[in-house]
Design brief:
By secondary structure, the protein is of the alpha/beta class. Helices cover 40% and strands 18% of the residues. The protein has twelve helices and eleven strands. α1 runs antiparallel to α2, α2 crosses α5 and α4 packs across α6.
């Protein structure tokens, strides 16, 4: 399966050797008609953006996290195990056995869209928020997130961002984003942070086609399962965000982005910020055209007293690769490229 092998290479490039090895072997198992072929039957020709392989991996990871895959757990750092390249044959044997034994459970995971509420991407959201606040003045913020998943990044102003010579956010936050900027925070961000040591967020609005409730055990498990098991720092950030959202619940509407935006208008005396991260690829072209139209409407309706900002952190193809870029547009002004970053948000770097 070419899609599985592409995902294996992507995992290898992002320090996830465990998943890279498992997916490489899973592709061979699919070709041989093994348990992995049975597990994904009917999904072989699914669009690449469905990322069927990650759905399967998340389902297995959930079984590991809940103690239902004890033979596999010793290889998963997220469950207290460890993985070395020499473990690949034994790990694969245990993984294959789980796929075979838990067929019905894993088929259920294949029907669920990927839900990675990546907390590290709040690094870019906060940078964009501070940029927008510097541009329009210190107004209270209405934060609107498209494709918000569990809504964790709607609490981004409660996170702590740290880089060389730079820190912003509550020192006692359970979510710390360390080493956030390669080479230190850019000059424009330092200036914005100095001028705005805190943000007042008066409304937090989010939408998602299939939102997760992080306060629900099943929703929290799904969010944890989509974090790759070798990425323990990501898991720690997620755990902190889950703790925070238990104290400060947010609501994510089960609605498409265009319909959701149709109900949003600028509000006098506040800065309305529409934000999304690595979600556009999952939105059909006709739906995104409607989203674009709504964004243009909001920009045109904004004013000096009721400004609107649009922030995005999305991949932009260039020279056979994706550059993940933070872009900002204030009102109807031209869009600005502010920074680039690792797909998971840490680190970012100036452009």
């Amino acid at each position: 399966m070419a899609a599985i092998e592409r995902q294996a290479r992507a995992c290898a490039a992002m320090d996830a050797g465990l998943y890279a090895d498992l997916l490489t072997r899973a592709a061979g198992d699919v070709r041989a008609g093994g348990p992995c072929a049975t597990a994904i039957a009917g999904y072989e020709d699914a669009p690449a953006d469905d990322i069927v392989s990650l759905r399967l991996l998340a389902g297995v990871h959930a079984l590991v996290l809940t103690g239902r895959a004890p033979r596999l757990a010793p290889f998963y750092p997220s469950a207290g195990g460890a993985y070395r390249a020499a473990d690949a044959p034994a790990c694969w044997a245990a993984f294959r056995a789980v796929v075979e034994a838990e067929h019905d459970t894993l088929r259920g995971w294949l029907r669920r869209p990927p839900q990675t509420n990546e907390v590290g991407r709040a690094n870019l959201l906060l940078a964009g928020l501070l940029h927008a606040t510097r541009e329009v003045g210190a107004l209270p913020v209405r934060l609107v997130e498209l494709g918000a998943s569990g809504g964790l990044n709607l609490l981004a102003d409660r996170f702590r961002v740290e880089a060389a010579g730079f820190a912003w956010g509550p020192p006692d936050s359970p979510v710390v984003l360390p080493d956030a900027w390669r080479g230190g925070a850019p000059r424009w961000l330092r200036a914005a942070a100095d001028g705005h040591p805190g943000l007042t967020v008066v409304e937090r609005l989010g939408c998602d086609i299939t939102p997760l409730d992080p306060a629900d055990p099943d929703g929290a498990l799904a969010l944890r399962a989509y974090v790759w098991p070798q990425h323990t720092a990501r898991a720690a950030r997620l755990a902190g965000a889950l703790e925070l959202v238990r104290r400060l619940p947010v609501r994510v509407a089960a609605k498409g982005a265009a319909d959701f935006l149709a109900g949003i208008s600028p509000r006098p005396g506040t800065l309305t910020v529409v934000w999304h991260s690595v979600m556009r690829q999952y939105v059909p072209a006709d739906e995104w055209a409607r989203v674009t139209a709504e964004l243009e409407r909001l920009a045109a309706e904004g004013s000096a007293d009721a400004p609107v900002a649009h922030l995005s952190f999305e991949p932009h193809p260039r020279e056979a690769r994706n550059d993940f870029q933070l872009r900002a547009r204030i009102g109807t002004a031209p869009e600005r490229l502010l920074a680039e970053a690792h797909p998971h948000g840490l680190p970012a770097w100036a452009v």
